[in-house]
Amino acid sequence: MDARPVRWLGAKIVISYHAVLWPQFRPVKKSWRFLLELNRIFILRHAKGILSTSRDIRGQIEQLLGRDKDRVPIFDHLPTYSPAQFADISPPDDLPRRPFRTFFMSRIEENKGVFDIVEIARSLEAARPGEYRFDICGSGGALAALRQRVTDLGLEGVVMCHGFSNPEKVSELMSSSHVCIVPTRTNYEAGFEMTCSEAILAARPLVTSAVCPALDYLRDASVEAKPDDPASYREAIVKLSDDPQLYASKQRACAGLQAQFYDRGNSWYSAMRRALDPYARKR
Question: Which UniProt keywords apply (predicted)?
Answer without folding.
Answer: Glycosyltransferase, Transferase
